[in-house]
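tool_call predict_complex ligand=S-adenosyl-L-homocysteine
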Amino acid sequence: MNNHSGSAAGQAADKGGGIPEIPNTNISETELQLKYIEACKDLIREQYPEGLRYFIQNEGCQMNNLQTETVAGMIRDMGCVSADSETDADVVIFNTCTVRENANQKIYGRLGRLKSIKRSRPDLKIVLFGCMMQEEHVVAKIRESYRFVDLVFGTHNMHKFPELFYHSLQSGGQIIDIWTDTDQIIEGLPCDRKYSFKTGVNIMFGCNNFCSYCIVPYVRGREKSRKPQAILQEIEDLASHGVTEVMLLGQNVNSYGKTLDTPVTFASLLREVEKIEGIRRIRFMTSHPKDLSDELIEVMASSSKICHHLHLPMQSGSSRILKKMNRHYDKERYLDLVSKIRTAVPDISLTTDIIVGFPGETEEDFCDTLDVVEKCGFDTAFTFIYSKRTGTPAASMEGQIPEDVVKERFGRLLDLVQKKGRERSGRFTGTVQEILVEEENREKGLLTGRTGYNLLVHFPGDPSLIGSYVKVRMDECKGFYYFGSILEENS
Ligand code: SAH
Ligand code: SF4
Ligand code: F3S
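tool_result ok
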């Protein structure tokens, strides 16, 4: 099922004419798009004799980031090179997020700036895709007030980028192609990954949970798991190309595999990933507390590769609010889960997400949130002010909280989260940790790496160590990161 809405691709293509002979029957969608990549390459050679430079940027979560890397891989394979900024680019591409209103405002702000660049350089192409584009009111606004945007597509048809870009290169008009949902998962697209030694791997798409505040299920569609064979094959390929750390990604990895023809559990997938030679670290995100199984806790406890870090978003500490949020657990259940995990994996690093100011949140509810933060010992908590999302049940709930009350609560929560986080992170002072060296920290002339617990460490060392594992003494805790010194090479 591919439900299209507002597609202008066909019309625009007619204007350009001269579409190459690309058979679209009997070949897979991936093969079709690979053919369009080749066709774009030829067009680009004609239209941009000096080469096409693109600037691509991402908003939002790590899953979105991975899709940005996929679009970057596709345009790279068209023979284009990346530019350092919007002003140096022939094509500017934004992958958008709409989880909170400020993400949307950021995009409108950028479009404002791009409008003036485009006035002086009318050939500049502007491409928008991703979650925000799945919202009807956004697309209506782009159609009316942002005519200078060249190409718009959504989350369900991002694999069509080569085809749509081909039409855009030919036509010159505004092309908008948004699908309302899809049941397909397209495998085998190119990907231009930021690091050669660590990467995210999407194991599932969409979300079925409909937490009452959240827009994700509306813009990402129903939950779909990739087949375990496809995931394992991809990770084997990555490992054979030098990747040693993978982060398995999904909106709720704990429900992975439930909708497959032959259902499998996330824990069993982890066991298989663990067997892949060359993979040294396995991470995953995000775990919904309602679906966190004993089997998963056991696998984490017995594995030598799964990092002892668990991101377990609690959202609120109040059972009353959790019910209104449609989270399917309460305060006690969350606290029980945390204590179960800590018993099985005593050194676990726990992180969470918390929303402040959900409709109807009273001072008492908020105190429950503070209480859970006191009790759980989070290493980090990402705190968000509730943002009203059009079309979600919470948007029409009574008792929207005044801004001054929310800000005051947010300040108190942040103080507590930071205090507790500093105490927790401090536990590594003086210990020796294995670090995956990620990059140079240009400002300070240091290297930056990460512990298995996901803590950043800066230390003096040679850039040739990037991508390898080294032992580092954790000398000085600076709250959420450390300064350290290297002990011995260990790659
Ligand atoms: N699937 C993940 C979360 C994805 S969104 C999970 O269920 O844990 C990342 C975070 O954004 C959420 O955990 C939540 O804390 C926050 N968030 C989502 N919708 C929000 C909203 N309307 N206002 C404020 N924060 C929100
Ligand atoms: Fe949003 Fe809830 Fe799905 Fe997470 S589980 S993406 S918070 S609806
Ligand atoms: Fe944002 Fe979409 Fe991710 S709304 S948080 S980019 S799934």
